[in-house]
Amino acid sequence: MPGINSYKRARMKSGLKLAILVFSFLALLSACVSTSNNTPPESTHGWTWVSGSNSAGQAGIYGTQGTASPSNVLGAREYPVSWLDSSGKPWLFGGHGYDSAGNGGDLNDLWKYDPTTLEWTWVSGSSTAGQAGIYGTQGTAALSNVPGARSGAVSWLDSSGKLWLFGGKGYDSAGNNRYLNDLWKYDPTTLEWTWVSGSNTIDQAGIYGTKGTADSSNVPGGRYGAVSWLDSSGKLWLHGGWGLDSAGANGDLNDLWEYDPATLEWTWVSGSNTIDQAGIYGTEGTAALSDIPGGRDTAASWLDSSGKLWLFGGGGYDSAGNLGQLNDLWEYDPTTLEWTWVSGSNTANQVGIYGTQGTAAPSNVPGGRCGVVSWLDSSGKLWLFGGKGYDSAGNLGELNDLWEYDPTTLEWTWVSGSEIANQVGTYGTQGRRALSNVPGGREYAVSWLDSSGKLWLFGGAGYDSAGRYNYLNDLWHYTR
């Protein structure tokens, strides 16, 4: 019966084809429905909200000192200081914000964050704001020693993994609150602080000595909002801030200092020993011994691979001696002792020129601002984020723009965020990167760069997801 078998085979083939078509259609339909209901794929670059709250004004959850926990989190705060240790763990100290009871004030808590476990550890200091410093004996480490609560200090991490802390506005040994000039060292192995240099009382005038000459009696005056660098030889560098000059007068400083941990001596290197100096800009792009940035506070700083010190903006004095928000970029060469005005204006309160997002151009430049954060990436590019300053429309407010500067091409690129001030934060889903995510406008946050090239950002004073302005405790990273 070959005819019948052929007929059956033809019918079976026809049915099989129909079944395949139906199955393919259902699978396609299912895929379409599934895709429409699923979250879009995670972007390859952009901001990720990692930890903390999307609501401003949060109290700290300290847990047990020395014990990591997923429930631990720093209280919202502005102007702490940060370090990144050799194992890739970020450390944060102090700032002005909220303690464990939700009370506002200056803090002296030391925290460590583990990016692998996503857990914070409260390491040292108090869970209560407004603590006086316990100095002990200068030069002697002790478990009972601890710097007083403060904000606007500066920090360094040395080659042996020690954390260094200088000055800020906060509490001395007697519980008085104002400008400090104490230098501290913390050993993460022994968990001990050492008071190294400076005074245990507030409002000390600077002792400058002879410019260029180290001396054991030299010491910078108490100050807030300076910037710092650590060079390849292990020397600590300090510039400017709001504080006290050689006569004890308060104002914006433009003095540059170097500290040698081996000799325990400060050297006044550059700038004036009196406050409120106008900038001497000279010719843009040309180094000169006579050029010098004006007095300023809360600027941004970088140290490049060739050992040059970079300085951007802050609140301070322009070439005419006018006080305002600056957007000048400077480079200092420790070998020649010369400053170079590299980019930006010699006049304060400039608006931002943003150009096209993602495109470098010689005309692009961030607006004048203070309270920014900064990074230096592995390719030598300078990065900065936010601060309080001028947007593209000339409005003064909290910024959330991310910029990259290429020292080779001398061009700025507007990378992320808005060109208009006072933006609300777009948090998205915690732990998930998205192009639409962006921190709200803010000033006085802290930052660090990890070994994988991610830019990390924490806290500051700014806008949360609902547009409320207060201190923040959100932790973000940006993947390029």
Brief write-up:
It contains one helix and 30 strands.
Describe the structure.
- With 480 residues, the chain is mostly beta strands.
- The protein folds into 2 domains: 1-36; 46-479, Kelch-type beta propeller (Neuraminidase), CATH 2.120.10.
- The chain is built from 1 helix and 30 strands.
- The protein has one helix at 2-37, and strands at 46-51, 77-78, 81-84, 90-98, 104-114, 119-124, 150-151, 154-157, 163-171, 177-187, 192-197, 223-224, 227-230, 236-244, 250-260, 265-270, 296-297, 300-303, 309-317, 323-333, 338-343, 369-370, 373-376, 382-390, 396-406, 411-416, 442-443, 446-449, 455-463, 469-479.
- The strands form 6 sheets. Strands 1, 27, 28, 29 and 30 form a 5-stranded antiparallel beta sheet that branches.
- Strand 14 (236-244) and strand 15 (250-260) form a beta hairpin.
CATH class of the largest domain: Mainly Beta
Unreliable stretches covering 5 or more consecutive residues: 1-37
What's the story with the biggest beta sheet?
A: 5 strands, antiparallel
The SS-based structural class is mainly beta
- CATH homologous group name of the largest domain: Kelch-type beta propeller
- Would you identify the CATH architecture of the largest domain? 6 Propeller
| Discrete helix count | 1
Beta content: 35-45%
Briefly note the CATH topology name of the largest domain: Neuraminidase
Helix content: under 10%
Number of strands: 30
Radius of gyration computed on alpha carbons: 27 Å
The averaged pLDDT comes out at 92
Distance between the termini: 72 Å
Shape: globular
Structural domain count: 2
